[in-house]
TrEMBL record:
Protein name as it appears in the record: Heme ABC transporter permease
InterPro entries, A to Z: ABC_BtuC-like, ABC_transptr_permease_BtuC
Coarse class of the protein's main subcellular location: membrane
GO molecular function, one term: transmembrane transporter activity
GO cellular component terms, semicolon-separated: plasma membrane
């Protein structure tokens, strides 16, 4: 198949999948709304039809369901883009945003807010501290990994591992010192959930997502050159250190914004970019936008499953992504080992 046709087909399938899963998800739940009525409601809001639903269905769709659907698409898309950028920066298909401490740092900020009972930003307090914790932790990992004005990939990854261990110890201490209610809230936050999504939260995240994705796409050409090797990239005019810093900062901003509202959701940034790279090739100009739609589709499908697999239960979405991502990660390890002829 011609590459252009293949790319077009993959993007068309991703967009169609996102639209279909979003509409089905909006109509699914304890108060079911038929798909035809969901479609009619959307058309009515766009001013394309005069059809109206009953007030209860309209309220369920536009006050509860659609905010959650849109937030799910934003978070999934962001995690997919972050994974593509991280794998490009590190030159490693096993990299994902959690490597640089975004998720664990956000968990520290959110846990601190929950245990201390802070409410100085109202309903935005926990997400705001989660965002700040993720951003600060990522910048700390980058600063600690630098030596003589440069940062190496291996040092950056190992520093991330060390800082992640420290943040997990801090979370454990906070849970130990918290009461039962706060402890349960921290555990639920760490498992990941989009149940509390509202339009004000969507409006808060959307600008950061838009800017982050635009900057990531702008870095595509330099990431492609970096794939040739650091020395070759420098000869071609790429400031590798500046590129790495810029990529880490933009990933920190996007991922911290996402997980501050959703909690920790793993493996999306690992599965989506790697799977699409096998389909579309390593070019980031195509891979990053594809990862945006792929991540949105994967998380939307996972959230649909989280709300409908069990009656009157809303499963933690991070648990479902881990159930899918764990076996995929193991398969990826085995595939990498076979292709390289072993680790030694």
């Amino acid at each position: 198949m011609n590459r252009g046709v293949k790319v077009t087909a993959v993007f068309a399938a991703l967009v169609a999948g996102v639209v279909a899963v979003s509409l089905v998800s909006a109509g699914s739940g304890q108060f079911g709304v038929p798909l035809s009525q969901v479609f009619d409601s959307v058309l009515h809001r766009l001013g394309l039809t005069e059809t109206r639903l009953d007030p209860f269905a309209e309220g369920a769709l536009w006050q509860v369901r659609f905010p959650r659907v849109v937030m799910t698409l934003l978070v999934g898309g962001v995690l997919g883009v972050c994974g593509a950028v991280m794998q490009g920066v590190f030159g490693n298909p096993l990299a994902e945003p959690a490597v640089v401490g975004v998720s664990s740092g956000a968990a520290v900020g959110a846990s601190l807010s929950i245990v201390a009972g802070w409410t100085f930003f109202g309903a935005f307090t926990t997400p705001a501290l989660g965002f700040a914790g993720g951003l600060v932790t990522t910048l700390l990992v980058y600063a600690l990994s630098r030596s003589r004005g440069r940062s190496e990939v291996v040092t950056l990854i190992l520093t991330g591992v060390a800082v992640n261990a420290v943040t997990m110890a801090i979370i454990s201490f906070l849970m130990f010192s918290a009461d039962q209610a706060a402890r349960e809230q921290i555990v639920f936050w760490q498992l990941g959930s989009l149940a509390g999504s509202r339009w004000p939260y969507v409006v808060t995240v959307l600008p950061l997502v838009a800017v982050g994705v635009a900057v990531s796409i702008a870095l595509s050409r330099k990431l492609d050159l970096l794939a040739l090797g650091e020395r070759q990239a420098r000869h071609l005019g790429v400031d590798v250190e500046r590129l790495r810093l810029g990529a880490v900062v933009i990933v920190a901003l996007m991922a911290a914004a996402a997980v501050s509202y959703s909690g920790i959701i793993g493996f999306v940034g690992l599965i989506v970019p790697h799977g699409l790279r096998m389909l579309l090739g390593p070019g980031h100009r195509v891979l990053i936008p594809a990862s945006l739609f792929g991540g949105a589709l994967l998380l939307a499908a996972a959230d649909l499953g989280a709300r409908t697999l069990f009656t009157y239960a809303d499963l933690p979405i991070g648990m479902l992504t881990a159930l899918v991502g764990g076996p995929f990660f193991f398969w990826l390890l085995l595939r990498t080992r076979r292709r390289s002829g072993g680790w030694a």
